[in-house]
Design a protein that fits this description.
It is built from 4 helices and 2 strands; from the N terminus they run ααααββ. The protein has helices at about 10-25, 25-30, 35-50, 70-75; strands spanning about 80-85, 85-90. A hairpin with a 2-residue loop joins strand 1 (about 80-85) and strand 2 (about 85-90). The longest helix is centred in the middle third of the chain and has 15 residues, at about 35-50. The protein is elongated, with a radius of gyration of 35 Å.
Length: about 90
C-alpha cells in the first residue's frame, strides 16, 4: 500500500449508495437492454421452450438423404443376386 492510499471500508448503507450511484452513470445505462431487446429475447426463449419431440429421418429442408440400406438388402438387390429361404447368393455363370 502506498503512503497516500487510504483504505476504504464504508458501512453497508453507504456502500450500497455508492453502488447505486456508480451504476446509474450514463455508460452503464447505455448497456441496458432496450424494449426491443427484451421482446426479442422473450420470443426466442419461448421458441426454445417448445418441445417438438424427436424425429428420426432426413432433415425437413434441403435435399433429402437416401435411406440407409442393410447389408443383407444390398446383397439381395445387387445385379445377379437372388434370395431363397432367407439366404443370399450370387448366380454363377451369369
Amino acid at each position: 500500500m502506498l503512503p497516500w492510499d487510504v483504505p476504504v471500508d464504508p458501512e453497508p448503507p453507504e456502500a450500497r449508495q455508492w453502488l447505486v450511484d456508480g451504476l446509474s452513470k450514463p455508460q452503464y445505462q447505455a448497456a441496458k437492454p432496450t424494449l426491443f431487446d427484451q421482446i426479442a429475447k422473450a420470443i426466442s426463449d419461448w421458441f426454445s421452450s417448445l418441445q417438438i419431440g424427436t424425429v428420426e429421418g432426413p432433415p425437413a429442408f434441403g435435399k433429402p438423404s437416401p435411406a440407409p440400406i442393410s447389408p443383407a438388402r444390398a446383397a439381395s438387390t445387387a445385379p445377379g443376386a437372388y434370395s431363397r429361404a432367407g439366404t443370399c447368393g450370387v448366380v454363377q455363370g451369369m
